[in-house]
Structure prediction request, 912 residues.
Amino acid sequence: MQKKSLIIFLVLASIHCHAQQSDSIMIRKIYDEALTNSKCYNWLDFLSNRIGGRLSGSSQAAEAVNYVQMELTKLNVDDVSLQEVMVPHWVRGPKEQAWIISNTQKTAVSICALGSSIATPKEGLIAEVVEVSNWEEMENLGSELIRGKIVFMNHPMKPTYVNTFEAYGEAAKFRYSTASKAAALGAKGVVVRSMTMAMDNNPHAGAMGYDELIDKIPACAISTLGAERLSGILKKDKKAQFGFIMSPQTLPDTLSHNVIGEIVGTEFPKEVILIGGHLDAWDLGDGAHDDGAGVVQAMEVLHILKSLNVKPKRTIRFVAFMNEENGGKGGEKYAQSAKSDKRKTIAAIESDAGGFSPRGFSFKGDSLMILKAMSWKKMFEPYLLFDWRKGYGGADINHLHDQGTLLIGFMPDSQRYFDLHHAATDTFDKVNKRELELGAAAMASLAWLLSEYGVK
Amino acid sequence: MQKKSLIIFLVLASIHCHAQQSDSIMIRKIYDEALTNSKCYNWLDFLSNRIGGRLSGSSQAAEAVNYVQMELTKLNVDDVSLQEVMVPHWVRGPKEQAWIISNTQKTAVSICALGSSIATPKEGLIAEVVEVSNWEEMENLGSELIRGKIVFMNHPMKPTYVNTFEAYGEAAKFRYSTASKAAALGAKGVVVRSMTMAMDNNPHAGAMGYDELIDKIPACAISTLGAERLSGILKKDKKAQFGFIMSPQTLPDTLSHNVIGEIVGTEFPKEVILIGGHLDAWDLGDGAHDDGAGVVQAMEVLHILKSLNVKPKRTIRFVAFMNEENGGKGGEKYAQSAKSDKRKTIAAIESDAGGFSPRGFSFKGDSLMILKAMSWKKMFEPYLLFDWRKGYGGADINHLHDQGTLLIGFMPDSQRYFDLHHAATDTFDKVNKRELELGAAAMASLAWLLSEYGVK
Prediction:
């Protein structure tokens, strides 16, 4: 009996060993293909340089939908489709202007309207400034000191986090919610320090939202050098004023689309592995890193599998989500329709952290599923993907959490991301071809393992 | 007895645990300091933008020596000194010119002289071209087909290595040694495809060397797009000619210096932990990544320790080596003088792979020493330094190998390095402040552990 057990064990171990070995060979093939015959860099060139910033509702967003649909069709995958989704349609208007006024001295600084912000009056909004670095400070000052003024939220991203997403996670709420909190105290407008650690003159856009019960006031982001300037002037002159003119508008919601393409599984077609990024992008740059990179990497997964003539056991489905930046309607819509679908999205990999050098994956979901996926880590170490951890999946796929989907965030190196995130500097020339390809290969390898072995 | 052993074990384990915990706290302090109060980025700005390319023997190299000596002195370390070293003095001369001639059509392409190359005749060198991709091909063609011609070594760096240094390691010999091998077959000149995977018009410099027994012929590097152009034209026109003019000169060897600064150990002053990079840099760019970054990161180690008022048990010595690029005389000199020194360099950390996001360390030396250093890996994982492996130390510290020194190469991400290595594009704007600082913190943390615990 003992001998028999041993034999069974040895046979099983050898099967497992053989599987790992043939899996490793497959992963090597995927990487070789990505590093020699990929299309993702050229796709990104088109999305970035020919189409450019593609905020939800814009003509560029519509062009991007058409482009991705067309390129997917060329890949000759099993199915390409558009999923209708109504999205917010906010437009920036002409370039914003701002200045600091201190004793007749007028200093121009760089700002941009935050997404969803209302406009200032046509002639602009000028008022004295109250500088704070968090909400507690603001509330301690109270309406007496804030009424009629502009609140300047000067909260720098903390440099001591090694992963810059942690610093962003801590700071971004000040961009999103300061306007209504300040308006509740009687403020006339809000200026928020840009969410970046780079010291330069580029304002960084991003979403904000209004509390429906409180009056709306205009909100803008100021560049970090502008913020330092404003703070420096306020230290000498408490009566210094800030003036800004911006004329964004919120137009009626617009019909847009998620773009979907898939290779149907040969054995378990109803089990779906989703790979995706978001197609919309802020309008100041061309959205190369956020999130053109994620979209083309996920498309590249299909391209690699088709080029290698791989027939996955489970369905591998690409989704380019619309409207991640200012509404999340694409992700919401996908999850809604997935609920009534007979096919189940068992795992989802999202790339929405830039197209930089790959470091690992972060997992959210059932613990046993995570354990199973993490057991593949060793096979990725030759490709320098060492960082596998529990954590966040991604904004678009997060809507699938309550359906039991294993959510997986692709994690590239984070150091350079917030230098350009949502700013005019998020452009194609900042993307390195190999880094982009290595990310696509990492996603393709993991998607393929999930398609072979499932999540349970 | 068993109980006693258990107690001893528990006590030892608790001491070990306590040490690890206090070490982790120290490493956190080092990182916080590096990410908030570092000087390395400003130092690099000066070295790159005020001094620029600083090839051995140049006035810029001398300026760089003075600058580093001055800045070290400001740090108020225990000792700052210059170590004399004679270095080669090769100068490029005016910008090189090159063109492809095919049926009266003349196409200009970008080249640069390789370091140590002789000049072409004043009027230039024009000849038919023989394209090869390795030495075997060249030797198979033989002198009959090569005599009187220009050999075009078109060996692309292999894209499928994930670590680009492996591809470089394989390709760089063709830059260094093709001239003499081709001359032995009667070639009049050599054009080598630049050692990069980036497709652009930038030629990449780098060292070559002559076999003293064989006639010297001029050798240049051609940009990758130039190489593709030349190869394309040769496919249609076997009689196409290549012409180039360059007038580099080798002047007499020049007196230069390694720059040394140290904090003397409190308990074991005679045991030295070396940290360093090289101060010389190719002349086409400003040498920001190669190796200004390494020099300022190593200087930053001293700065961090001084700022935190750390008194290391063993001596921590900074060395800015001269002449890594075209001779290695600085590293050689340091190792020679270390032999007769009463103080022993027990470990050496070199940063010479660019100032990119840190990934890990590679170790060369005694296996037990490596095991000991690797036992600290866990403490570096919160800083995303996962990749610890046996491997290469660095060109300058390698001369210490036969003295039993533990050699340690700092490993940043390699994807972008060869895009700019030795080219006009190696400039300060390609360096990210945080990535640079994180590298300095990684080196400081490891140097500090080595100073606390030694290598045995």
